[in-house]
């Protein structure tokens, strides 16, 4: 299987259950958001997906950069990052789990609505 096919196979297994892993974990939420900002470099080795290392063995990225972009220390970020990878919440192509993305979008919308509501109430 190609890198793209393996990532697609991971996406095909998505379920809303993944939200449980990040719903009450602000560090994991920050890492998911920051994942989209991390520079990922695909390796030229074409058979790394077949070597048993899977798609994660086909890329290079700076974990320290990931933690910094999330505003976390390496100590804070490492365990949650491993959980996100192991549970296919972040993908090696730089994308994230669809249900998790929708959940994070709803959190952002909720916070924006709360902010605007509080501004409106202060003006009265």
Structural description of this entry:
The protein has 124 residues and is mainly α. Helix content is 57%, strand content 5%. It is built from 6 helices and 2 strands, in the order αααββααα. Strands 1-2 form a two-stranded antiparallel ribbon. Helix 3 crosses helix 5.
Draw up the topology in text.
Elements: H1 3-12, H2 19-23, H3 26-35, E1 40-42, E2 59-61, H4 63-69, H5 74-86, H6 98-123
Antiparallel strand pairs: 1-2
Structure, briefly:
The protein has helices at about 5-10, 20-25, 25-35, 65-70, 75-85, 100-124, and strands at about 40, 60. It is mainly alpha-helical.
Keywords:
124 residues, two-stranded antiparallel sheet, globular, mainly alpha, 6 helices
Q: Which of globular, elongated, flat, extended, rod-shaped describes the shape? A: globular
Major sheet characteristics: 2 strands, antiparallel
Q: Can you give the mean pLDDT?
A: 90
- The neighbouring-strand order within the major sheet is 1-2
What is the H-and-E element order? HHHEEHHH
Specify the number of helices: 6
**Percent range of helical residues:** 55-70%
Total strands: the figure is: 2
Radius of gyration equals: 17 Å
| Weakly predicted, low-confidence segments | none
Q: What would you call the quaternary organization?
A: single chain
The CA-CA distance between the termini, in Å, is: 61 Å
Q: How big a fraction of the residues is strand?
A: under 5%
